[in-house]
Amino acid sequence: MAQHTTDTLVELKQKVGSCIDEAKDRLHRLSKDIWSCPELAYEERKSHDRLVKFFSEEKGWTVDSHFKLETAFRAIWGPVGGKESNNVINVGFLTEYDALPGIGHACGHNLIAEIGAAAAIGLKALVERTPDFAVPVQVTVLGTPAEEDGGGKIDLIRERAFDGMDVVFMAHPSQEDASWLPDVAEHDVIVRYHGKASHAAAYPWEGVNALDAAVLAYNNLSVLRQQLKPDWRIHGIIKHGGVKPNIIPAYTELEYYLRTPSRKDLPTIKAKAEMCFRSAAMATGCEVELEFARNAFHNVLRNPTLHGLYEVNGKALGMEFTTDEEVLKNSSGSTDFGNVSFIVPGIHPYFYIGSDALNHTEEYTVAAGDDKAQFYTLRVAKALAMTALDVLLCPELLQRAREDLKEANLKEEQALRGASEAKHCGGAAQH
């Protein structure tokens, strides 16, 4: 396979950045349109349609408007270049576009969508303008809904939407530039208590108080926290606590998120939480039903090869990656990209958008829609496209990224086996 020299690779990286800059106005409008119409998980119809329109109007893309899910899409360009079409390298870029209830794009998913689009069209334009590009390339953009609630990427994995991808890229807004942060495993649960209504003043003894059960469950979990590992998290809300003070609540509902640094510990924390929920029902005489979410989010696997390449490219563009150990070691949030990281070599870096506001706040919503964020957003898109070029033009790097994935999966499997064995030995006497 033909190889480009280092000097040529540097030149190609500069050109891919220029290709992205050429489209900056279209990309900014795309981001602004998505930001202006925040939609919840699996309901992102306007944002979905806007992205589909964007790629349908870009020359050369084949667009599947409702790919596997109603608000998912796929846009494909290629394969182009090289001499052996059976050796096509399929580079994937992911977009997200769902928002949060009440506060809109407070996690900046409009910028994630813009980055995926920018990196994809920049790479496409670069390959098109490079005669005899060394390798046959396919660029795939996946529109992945419902990251905030539900896990659209996990649905798409189940539908084999990632089959054939060689490497996959996306980036997430934050307060700093970091090639990797410890996103953790998560499983959500809805808890419903059913009691019996009665007049709270005249004959309360006739009632079965579902609110008491919810409060006991809440307190049970609060007490449980002191027995959890320091990096495990349980947090939730009472979504429904009754209808009127003089009516014994016959129905209450809670929603909880359960998180651990590795997916291997999710079964343990789920079992502990379930005992808290069920004991509250037993104590109050209520019936309880637990509905665990269809999809559990995995932790994000680290890919040293791809993360290293991204940092080199980011620094060349002026990024200053955080060295704060508190940030780099402490658990971050959770993302359905974690599940993707188990099946395809990929990265999910974080990036500064020109604001110190915190994600999931009204202030971050404003920052995500501010024109100031555009410089940082397109810079990240360039870094991702440059990293894609590294992998495309050096087969050894792609092979190393694949080996990183294999090694990370092996460690996870060993950890799962270890956790299972420890559970079976848990009955041993302790002194």
From TrEMBL:
Residues 191-279 form the Peptidase M20 dimerisation domain. GO terms for molecular function: dipeptidase activity. CDD domains: M20_ACY1L2-like. Belongs to the peptidase M20A family. This is Peptidase M20 domain-containing protein 2. The gene is LOC106607711.
